[in-house]
Write a structure and sequence with these properties.
Blueprint (H helix, E strand, L loop, with lengths): L3 E7 L3 H12 L7 E8 L3 H9 L6 E6 L4 H11 L4 E5 L3 E3 L3 H14 L5 E9 L7 H9 L14 E2 L13 E5 H6 L12 H11 L3 E12 L5 H14 L12 H10 L5 H13 L3
Parallel strand pairs: 1-2, 1-4, 2-3, 6-9
Antiparallel strand pairs: 4-8, 5-9, 6-8, 7-9
Helix pairs in contact: 8-10, 9-10
């Protein structure tokens, strides 16, 4: 009866993970779900959560030597028993119909003869953690979640030329066969570009991306300005590991980055942090 394997990589965030799983217990199709949690590293508190808590849906838990979240997802995929996998983060709280909408989207795609395809759900900040100017900017500008940029593609496939930029593994589902055929790069050591890299592989294999905004989730994570700038610096450093991607500014774009980085604006501060990371390569 299992139709969806929900795969969650985690790292020392037992309390948030607990809330994440409780949201999965409230799904309208909870009886068709299994949850696979893979801890990236070792953590006694996370171990204790699964030793002492009885969830109302099937939850399997394992841990791996410290690697990175892509490797944790790969391990989870190998354990998946359902025909579709849903990747979410441990701080992603799904609304009750989200999983149902993912499966409905995959059925619709299959009926149209357009599978295999990935289905992207919608995510926004959880108001419970509070929001600030930088979080609002990250969401509306597309520097973290670019949903406003793909609003016109709701309930449709994104163009192949841009789809890889929106394969957000914090909330995306794919056929399990696709997830097994296209694992995440195990050699990635730094946060930043593995989603785009994975999306590029799907694109090149003609696995299209469908946007299903009715599959909604809240991102239970607060980001300060300092956090955001550190993230941008890391993105600048880590892009060197993906020379084939089209995200590194060169030529006139690099000059534009350098000029705008001089401005005391939100864009300028973030581009300055990105360039700082880029220079560390």
């Amino acid at each position: 009866m299992l139709e969806l394997s929900v795969i969650i990589p985690t790292h020392k965030r037992a309390d948030i993970l607990d809330h994440c799983i409780h949201h999965l217990e409230k799904q309208t199709i909870a009886d068709k779900l299994e949850v696979i949690v893979i801890h990236d590293g070792q953590d006694e508190k996370t171990d204790a959560l699964f030793d002492n808590t009885a969830f109302h849906i099937p939850v399997r838990y394992g841990s791996i030597p410290k690697s990175q979240q892509g490797v944790a997802r790969n391990v989870g995929v190998q354990k998946a028993q359902a025909s579709t996998c849903l990747f979410i983060g441990d701080d992603i709280f799904l609304e009750s119909h989200a999983c149902e909408h993912h499966l409905e989207a995959h059925r619709k795609i299959a009926e149209q003869g357009k599978d295999p395809a990935a289905v992207l759900g919608f995510t926004t900040w959880d108001p419970a953690v509070g929001t600030n100017d930088v979080m609002h900017w990250l969401e509306t500008s597309g520097w973290q979640f670019g949903y406003p940029k793909i609003q016109k593609y709701k309930h449709r496939f994104l163009p192949k030329t841009i789809a890889h930029k929106f394969t957000y593994t914090s909330h995306i589902s794919v056929p399990t066969s696709v997830a097994k055929k296209f694992p995440f790069d195990k050699d990635v050591k730094m946060y930043g570009w593995e989603d785009v890299h994975w999306g590029s592989e799907l694109r090149d294999a003609n696995v299209h991306l469908y946007y299903e905004p009715d599959a909604r989730a809240l991102h239970h994570h607060f980001i300060s300005m300092e956090d955001s700038l550190k993230r941008m610096e890391t993105l600048g450093r880590s892009i060197a590991a993906f020379p084939s991607l089209d995200r590194r500014p060169t030529g006139w774009k690099l000059w534009a980055y350098r000029l705008s980085a001089l401005l005391p604006t939100m864009v300028g501060r973030h581009r300055r942090a990105f360039l700082k990371g880029l220079q560390m390569n």
